[in-house]
Amino acid sequence: MSRIDALIAELCPEGVEFKSIGEIAAVGTGSSDRKDAKADGAFPFYVRSQDVFRIDKYEFDEEAILIPGEGGIGEIFHYVSGKYALHQRAYRICFNLAELDTKFAYYYFAVHFKRFILSKAVSATVTSIRKPMITDFCIPIPPLEVQREIVKVLDAFTELEAELEAELEAELEARRRQYKYYRDALLAFSDQDIRWASMAELGEFIRGRRFTKADYVEDGVPCIHYGEIYTRYGTAADTAISHVRSDMAASLRYAKPGDVVVTDVGETVEDVGKAVAWVGSEDVAIHDHCYAFRHSMNPKFVSYCMQTSSFIAEKAKYVARTKVNTLLIGGFSKIRIPVPSLEEQERIVAILDKFDALVNDIAIGLPAEIAARRQQYAYYRDRLLTFKEAA
């Protein structure tokens, strides 16, 4: 940033002039509605979100900043140059000052506009933007050479940040694919003479009993809700996330330590029949959209088997695709899984646990790494977009 500092020292050492948006821009809304969107439309259609839709007709052909009038207040900004359509509750800010670079103004809005509207609000939140909020906002007008240099730096930062996020996410996806490959290979036993048996031969399925979120308490009977299996639990769990009232204990059904808890409904076919091995030290209540698979195998081995591509493909044959995808437990129990010795089961579980931990470490570390980069970017962006006002 030494070049920018040098330019400021040379061209505007005493500060810069600030002007209100009302002085230097035309501010208005669009006239399109979200129902006007067409998936294959020829022109971008900006609504009240970060997403950009398509539309058949354009309303404007210009360079402008776009912000929603409702939703994402002070968080969502678009820079546009060319033909576009705009939602009727979103604002366009089109500058008529030759000495102002619109992209510079876009970056300045992204940093400072939310603080401005919150400083004028009577409450801690702002649910909608009115035109005077925009027209009263003031923006610095440093020399164009300074503006363009700042835009160049921030464009580069933005591109670098996007590339880094894509690389980190690609690394995580590669590790997941690698893990999936080794898990499937380990549990295929394609080159070994291993007994395979249906789950009905290996154990029994015990259905849970209903409880609702209204029954939840901070401290009570530990329980597993079917929705938590595909949102919050992994391969195995030794501690319940939720609890229900103690006075319900006698009316509930339980998974015992070593059982594998299986969902019988889901939004997708893959969610149906998802499993978590219960390895806690006490019984855990299970919802009536769950089954406890009681058996004598290594519970984590069984849970890993249920994650393989071959098992998921077989499972799909026994899902009723109605309004809610539902598991047909009679057919599901016929799916065969390998039955190696308990020692071999433990060996495979130890290997897969290490892979699982590696992938989870990356998954946990990824948001932290991205957040650190964003914080670094925000620091430099804020510094670049802070100006002393000329006397």
Automatic annotation (TrEMBL):
<protein>
    <submittedName>
        <fullName>Restriction endonuclease subunit S</fullName>
    </submittedName>
</protein>
<keyword id="KW-0238">DNA-binding</keyword>
<dbReference type="GO" id="GO:0004519">
    <property type="term" value="F:endonuclease activity"/>
</dbReference>
<dbReference type="GO" id="GO:0009307">
    <property type="term" value="P:DNA restriction-modification system"/>
</dbReference>
<comment type="similarity">
    <text>Belongs to the type-I restriction system S methylase family.</text>
</comment>
<dbReference type="Pfam" id="PF01420">
    <property type="entry name" value="Methylase_S"/>
</dbReference>
<dbReference type="InterPro" id="IPR000055">
    <property type="entry name" value="Restrct_endonuc_typeI_TRD"/>
</dbReference>
<keyword id="KW-0540">Nuclease</keyword>
<feature type="domain" description="Type I restriction modification DNA specificity">
    <location>
        <begin position="13"/>
        <end position="173"/>
    </location>
</feature>
<dbReference type="InterPro" id="IPR044946">
    <property type="entry name" value="Restrct_endonuc_typeI_TRD_sf"/>
</dbReference>
<dbReference type="InterPro" id="IPR051212">
    <property type="entry name" value="Type-I_RE_S_subunit"/>
</dbReference>
<feature type="domain" description="Type I restriction modification DNA specificity">
    <location>
        <begin position="200"/>
        <end position="370"/>
    </location>
</feature>
<keyword id="KW-0378">Hydrolase</keyword>
<keyword id="KW-0680">Restriction system</keyword>
<keyword id="KW-0255">Endonuclease</keyword>
<dbReference type="GO" id="GO:0003677">
    <property type="term" value="F:DNA binding"/>
</dbReference>
